[in-house]
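Possible race condition, two jobs.
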Amino acid sequence: MKTYRLFLILLPLFFPLAGISQIVNKDSISFVHSFGMIEEKDSLSVLLANELYRISIKAKEKNYPPFYGGVYIKNKQLIFVLSDSISMKNIVDLLPTKLIPYSHLIPARFSYYDLLKTKNVLETFYFKTSNKQTIEAIGWSSWYLSIEKNKIMIRLKECNDTKIRLFKSKILDSPMLQFIEADKNVHI
């Protein structure tokens, strides 16, 4: 009788995972590992990795809709970065019902598509040989797109007001940019 009671008590804890595919999709695991570590033996981690991959591919196929700011995994939840322009229908299309307990929506100021366009402008400037002196004078080290911050992070060797103003006047002035100090040591 005690075993039966224990089973009845523990059953609701496992119910949210019932019906969830726990097959490891190697593409999604590789994709998610590029954004951070996941626990491959944990069915919830595998589910979130597979869904993150599916959602990202689906968003890319639709050329990143204007409401989409990105998605990432944090604390065993899918964090959706979405603009105010998203409708309930867009949310339903994007978010499978089985993931609602494991999802969190946060506001985006910029769409992922617009962030990518800005990132492409930076890449074009950075890799043009004639801009080498400007890049060195500013101390522009690197850049990356942060879905979590909904910004493009610009790494400067000396991140101060003078260098930031110089960057904005010579390269690009955009509210999508956030400036940070570059690491002194690069770990390979």
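Job #2 (started ~2 s after job #1):
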Amino acid sequence: MKKLIALLVVCTMMTGAFASCGDDKQNESSAEKSISEAETKATESDTEEETTEKETSTEKTTREKTTEEKTTTEKTTEETTTTQTTTEKTTTKSATTNKTTTTETTTKSADDDESEESILGMWYIEDDDLTMGFDFKDKSNLSMWIDITDVVHFSGNDFIIDGDVLNPDSISYDGTTFSINVDGQDLWTMTKESGSTDSYDGEYKMVSGIMYDSVALYEGVDVYVIVKGDTMLADYRNALTYSVDEDKIAIIGLDTIDFNEKETLDTTYEIKDGTLTIKDFDEDGDCIMKRFDITTFKSENDNKITEENIIGAWRLSDDKYGLRFNENGTGNLFVDSTEMLQFADDGNFIISNTYFEPEEINYDGTTFSIDIDDTDMLTMTRNGDSNPDSFNGKYTIKSGAYYDGMIDSIGDSFGIESEDVVVYLIVDGEKTFVEFAGVFIYSVEKGSLVFEGLENIGISDGSLVPCKMSENGIILTGDNKEKRTFEKTDLQ
């Protein structure tokens, strides 16, 4: 029951995310959100009347223009005017000048035959926190959807809530009506309106239950659930209408669902290379969306961290350190040390602006050492196969004055006692990285991570760290709620 209550809280939070195309905003009060059904109908009626008047006026003007052009053409050349579905061409040939003038007028509609230029269909907003978008269903109806797979979805015959399988005894499904009932309490009831009765896939209309009450926050707006495999979308319908004219678009009803203070958004749009851009969508600027296909869509559930996909080295974007996750549940921290340690193209080895020439370096393909006046400056051994022809590779640092000084200082900045851990030096061309092995431990719990040993980078011991896998890498949320993206690297 606790999981179900947690889901209600999450669902309520998800509706707040609708306030923008990816940026969190404060929701207005319930009174400000609620718009009466009579006002909505009146708005729709007024819009229909205006559209009808515009269409009637346009048709009248077109008929008058065509008649006039046709008369002129018949008098001048006795040729006929050819009319096509989307293009009108009128050719007039002057008897005295023998010149031909062609006038072409093209009108683009929502259901244009060119699919790349048509706004019809589903679009999604690219955002690391949330997957949502719009569905331009026909010439005027527009719905808003959100991917809720990360919270609730089907997996085969199981119903998953926050990673846990719901007791099958709580579920009832007869091919049309799906319901969840716990201890005699209606938690979720929805009826299927399309799709086979032999599977869960299809479109459902939510009709009752505690979960329904938590997400049905907008008066006159129907909540649908779209199921395809393990992907589940919540679709808000009958809230929005739209119209397009050339590159102009008008969206009516955004104020009803807290997207925009204006009842009607009049702006321009552009579709290019499968990307829809609605200009000046809200106070944050343009809304940019990609085409959406639920059959090939990678849902939020697929973006979860697992014990398999976490393995490897991940470097923090725009910074000089990263984390390596090992298969045994331990982790390494590596730091870009190029400014302190560098192998130059001319064969010199540079440590803290001190140049060591090739003859001062002892290297047999396995052991690398620098001794100055019988003083061990740095000694390390190469991991893996011996290679006397190249410095590139991974080394285990053994000893030396620079190890005791410089390496210690790097470790101290991250709260690491370098003498207590194995320290590696990774050489990749002119770049180097110092890596401290086994400085933290981690575990994967239901798509999140639990760490010990990373307090110095803002992650408390034992805390559940929200994270997800994205196209850009792993996104971790630290103690200060700041999101950090770690990109996968092939660092050996």
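The helical segments are 2-16, 30-33, 37-76, 210-215, 401-413.
Logs attached separately.
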